[in-house]
Fold this protein.
Amino acid sequence: QLQLVESGGGLVQPGGSLRLACAASGFTLDRYAIGWFRQAPGKEREGVSCISRIASRTYYADSVKGRFTISRDNAKNTVYLQMNSLKPEDTAVYYCATVPPLFDYVCMEPSVVDRWGQGTQVTISS
């Protein structure tokens, strides 16, 4: 069965850190660009970061630049999102997703995703 599984979410205080992981089963992630997206209650799903298939270029939403870092570990077939200096407005369900190589340069757009994970809750609160 082909699936993506996110892990690493939780409840942390403002200013804290979390590392999300996106693991694939049944296929290899290095064939795709991988995006991280989030959806807060009452809001649309938005792109947070992505790492392209070609040259592993990284892209970030302005709201997370300098705080979040995306990376790949192809040996573990996993993509990570390191999140530092977390803010209450980062609270959301976070999803990882595969993006076909054709859309490498727009891999933060939800409309180009071809497979979603089930999501992991991130809550930033004191």
User: Anything to note?
Assistant: The first strand starts at residue 3 and ends at 7. The mean pLDDT is 96. The radius of gyration is 13 Å. DSSP finds no helices and eleven strands in the chain.
